[in-house]
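Review form for a predicted model. The reviewer records the input and the model, then writes brief findings.
Reviewer: anonymous (R2)
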Amino acid sequence: MKEFFGFGGYARAAEGYMSWQHLTFVSLLMAVTIALAAVLGVRYRGRAEKERMKPLAWAAFLIDGIEIFRIVMICWRGRDALGWLYMLPLFLCSIQLITIPLAAFAKGRLKEAALDFVAIFGLLGAVLGTYGAGQNYACYPVLSIDNVASGVTHCISGFAALYILISGSASLKKRNVPVTYAILTAFCAVAYIVDLILPYNYMFLIRGDGTPYDIVYDLVGGSPVFYPLAVYLLFLIYIAAFYAVYYLVFGRKKRV
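Model under review:
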């Protein structure tokens, strides 16, 4: 347990990003994620909203509970009372710590927008936070609190997104697009300000840090102006593309 939580530093060397250990671990997590979402999504599809929200409520409690536990353990391990400043929910994936509970418990248009946001970004965050998490798997052993907790919380986001889509809980109405853009824009703005103050790299708006964002960083030559703008623009394009594909596949009926 001491080695799992990293007290005193890890005695094991990190297996490495894209090592067979990394790929095996995250593939198992994703397989469980997809299976659970499919089974529960089909089971709850067509039920009353209150019933359909039960799996999302569990997802909300689990993702926030595990993340809080992870932050407490890492701060305790490092004897750093201010370590939480570098673990704020200001990454694209960690926005789900807020939007999944809103999707499960909010009402009205806010609930619709939260459900749509989770559906749009949940699976993307799960893939980027597992297969694309070069900054984690290059530094910590695969079976460690840093990677296990991160992998599980990212996969809960993926589960929530797939469950929402399979159970028919997403509205994806055009009127909610501005709300989705507003949520993303607000988080990006706060993340960028915090990045400049700490400094840090929330939302990967400063550099790629070994993630696929490095491709964008290299394309703009590491420009401190064009790189964050390019990342933000990619988010907006992704939202538009998601809606376009969704309408193409499922049609436009009742999507106003």
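Findings: The mean pLDDT is 91.
Further findings: The two ends are 52 Å apart (CA to CA).
Recommendation: see findings above.
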